[in-house]
Every structure is written in C-alpha cells, then in structure tokens.
Amino acid sequence: MENKTYAIESISITKKYKNRTILDRVTFTVTAGTITGLIGSNGAGKTTLMRILLGLSKPSSGSLKVLALGENEKNKYLKKVGALIENPAFYPELTARKNLEIIALYLDVSFSEISDALDKVGLANSAEIKVGKFSLGMKQRLAIASILLGKPELIILDEPTNGLDPDAILQLRKLILELKEKGNTVLISSHYLTELELIVEDLIYLENGAIKFAGKAQEFISQNGNSLAESYQNIKEKKVGA
Amino acid sequence: MSNIFLAESKKIWKPKIVVWYLGITFSFVLLWIWAKYKPIILHSGGTSFQQAIADNQKAEGLSTAFVNLTPYFYMITVAIFASNFSREYSLHTWKNIFIYQPQRVKVIFQKCLALITFSSLIILFNFIFSLLVTLSIAGYGGINTNKWLTPKNLLHILDGEIRVTLATAFFGMLAIGLTSLIGSGKWTIAGVFLWLLVGEPLITHFFPKAEKFTINSNIDSFVMDFKWGASTWGLMLVIGLIGSIFALGNRKLISQDILG
C-alpha cells in the first residue's frame, strides 16, 4: 500500500449559512507535494472551502486537518500556509514594498526577502509605486509575492490568473511548477481549465457544495473527454457523469 | 515591541494624516492663545483685558490652551480609529491579516494599542506646541510665564495630559466598537459626531437633569476635575456603555466569517 502524506484532509465538512447549505459533507484529501486543481462553477463552494481551510470561516460540522494539524491548531498550521483568496487586498496609498513590509511584519519575516519576492513575480521595477496605481494583474502578482515571503509549505490560490496577461500567466505557471519542485503543495482553483490541465496532477470537482470527483486529473479526463475543458463541458451538458 | 504593533503603526503613521491632524490642532492652539491673550498683547482695556490679566496670574495659560482642544482631539480620534478599522473591511484586508495572524484577539489588541499610541503622541506634540507658543509670547504686554513653569503646574499639566489621553482612548474604543458592529466607518463617524454635537446638547437643553449621564459632560468632568477614587454614577455608566460597545463590536469581529 502506498504511504502518502496528506497536506489537507477534509472529512465531511458542511457549511450552512442562513438555512442554505454552501458545502455538503465535503470529504477529500490533498497529497503533500502535489498540485491539486479545484474546479466548479461560480457558487459551487470553492471559495468557501478555501476560506474554511484558512480559518476565515468556521465549518458548521465536519473535521479538518491541514499539514497534519487539526482545526484547534490553526495558529500553528497557518504559519506554514500562503494564500490568495478572491481578489488581492492591499493598501492602495502604500507602495508595493511598504505593503510587503506590513505583511513581512505579520509573518515575522526579514525585510531583506522582499526584493527577492518582488523579483520573482516581475515587480522589481514597480516596488516604489503605490498599489493604487497597479492594474489587477500587477496586484495579483504582488499577492503571489506576498505568499512567497512566508516560504509556505502549502499554497492555496483562488483564481490566481484573474486579470493576468498571457506573459504573466506563463510566469505564474513556471512559478507554481518551481514551487512544486521544491516540495510545496499547491491547491489552486481556476476557471481557466486549459491552463489548469498543464499543471495539476490531482483534481477536485465541486458542484452545488458537493464533491463530484476527487482523484487523479488524468482519470477525470479519460472518463469524460479528451481534455479537462472538454470533460467539464461534457459533464455540464450531461453527456457523461462525473 | 511586537511585530503586529509595528505593522499597524506603519498603516497609521502616514505623512498625510499626521500633517492634517497636527495642522488642524496646531491652528486651534494658535487661535485659542490669540483669543485669550489678545487683550494683553494689544494692551486693550475693559473686562476682557482684566480677565486675561487675571488668568495670566492664575498660571493657567499653558494647560488651558491644551485642555480646551480636547473636543477636537476626541472627534479627530473617532474619525481616525473608525476609518482605520473600516478600511480593513472595505479593502478586504482583514482576510490577509487573519491568515497571517490567526489570533484575532491579539491583532485587535495590538491594533488598538498602535492607535492609542498614535493619538497619545499627537496629543503630546500638541502639548509641546502649546508650550512653545505660550513661551514665545512671554513678555508681551506684561505676560509673565514664570508661574506657568513651576513644578506644581507642570505636574498639573502632566495629569491633564494623562486624562486627555485616557478620554481620547475611550472615544477611540467607542469608534472601534461601533465600526465593527455597523461595519461602516462613515456611519460611525457621522453617528458619533451627530450625537456629540447635536444629540446630547438637545437632550441637555430639554432635560437638564439628564446632563450628568451624557458622554460629553462625564468625559469633560473626568478631564477637568475628576478626583481619583471619587467615582460618579454618570461616569461609570458612560465607561460601561463605551466598554460594552467595544466588547460587542470586537466579539463580532472575532467570531464572524471574514468574507471578500
């Protein structure tokens, strides 16, 4: 039997909000050192699931282990997690460097690592520009830089390619693959299925708050079509079952 | 000094805010001193001249210029504290903060500490400015500042400084609590200003007996002539009310889901 270490173990997580079930007994695992894609239509519960993993939202029931630590040890595991949830959030009146300095202080990381992080996302020349003047793509890259600052073991990315131009998407893909090479675990949600197919090994398909598929991405594709995008389309058009 | 405190201070100590805050309060210091000592400086006669001379003899010049500014400190404090908290909602930065520092109580405590430190230092700068201005008018028309700088008077001023800082912190707590409860800095600022400038004066006008329970009069009496140990029901009620709003607001922030 294969001996796997899990970066995330979600057991029957349910989230109810105002009599509405956002997540319904969601059970899945994310193997350490892999890139796992999280797909599903808008409102499927992807962001809620990520928020729960990050301690921003409490599950109504179920249990969770992140980096082998339980929910009550959130303070310990979040130090090893980097995340970009929905739109990047920064202080517009401060420069990119100042924003990262604030994050470095929260993370207890030396300021000397800021230049390196900015360089990795191609923002070295924009370090002294106020974030209010940044495009969405630049903010997205700055958010990735902030994640890199903490040298996390687990990286959770919610729609990281939003607003990125093709060059930046290429750069992000390279960066994510590099992180994987270094042993990091990445959980990434995206609507860009063609892009996602290039990097993910495992896949979680969430629809109406319930898991429809959790396993190898290749298995999902071979069962439903010729590519990830085509497989997804076939499922949505009910040509095949997930 | 903790890292969270430093991070929060970085957000508050922005040149634009400091320049506006100091600019407004320094202008009030100058206006107040000019209004009070104009009769002496211009050697004018009449009752205002007599009053100014009498005040000069009481060695109050230094501290009153400073203490008379307190309502402005309170209102600016409400605006700064409320906007600092509400911006974390509107910019969706709470999610970053609480991922990096999941201990929400710790973050809120350090944030409050950074804001109170900011307002205390601004008050101190104002006091130093008041001191420099009042000293600079020494000698004009017989204004004698020697009495103002006696150890007894300086101690009295220090006591005033601490009371003003505490009173400012109360207003800051009120702003933070309301912002977290309502989720809007603008409504908090508008509500508190309206209550202090219109609500309480109207209540006092129509129901004079209610004055001893108003925020304005209790904080004023605390700053001006409160005797430690000799507590009043009105003040305890005001402190309880502000403390409860602060606790409820932060309870909501600590327990709620962070969206956006």
DSSP strand tally of chain B: 0
Strand segment count of chain A: 10
- The stretches of 5 or more residues of chain A where confidence is low (pLDDT under 50) are none
Residues in β-strands, percent of chain A: 25-35%
N-to-C series of helices and strands of chain A: EEEHEEHEHHHEHEHEEHH
Oligomer: heterodimer
* Domains of chain B (count): 1
Largest sheet of chain B: none
Shape of chain A: globular
By DSSP (H or I, 4+ residues per run), the number of helices of chain B equals 11
- The helix fraction of chain A, in percent, is 25-40%
Task: List the secondary-structure elements of chain B in sequence, H or E.
Answer: HHHHHHHHHHH
Distance between the termini of chain B: 31 Å
The gist of it:
Chain A has 9 helices and 10 strands. Chain A is of the alpha/beta class and 242 residues long.
Structure description:
The complex is a heterodimer of chains A (242) and B (260). Helices cover 35% and strands 26% of the residues of chain A. Chain A has helices spanning 46-53, 74-77, 96-107, 114-120, 136-149, 166-181, 193-199, 217-224, 228-236; strands spanning 6-17, 20-31, 35-39, 61-66, 69-70, 81-84, 154-158, 185-189, 202-207, 210-216. A six-stranded mixed β-sheet of chain A has the order 6-7-8-3-9-10, sandwiched between helices. In chain A, a hairpin with a 2-residue loop joins strand 1 and strand 2. The model of chain A has no long low-confidence stretch (mean pLDDT 92). Chain B has 260 residues and is mainly α. Chain B has one domain. Helix content of chain B is 79%, strand content 0%. The model of chain B has no long low-confidence stretch (mean pLDDT 84). At the A-B interface, helix 3 of A face helix 1 and helix 6 of B.
Label this structure with key terms.
A: 242 residues, alpha/beta, 6-stranded mixed sheet, 4-stranded antiparallel sheet, 9 helices, B: 260 residues, mainly alpha, 11 helices, globular
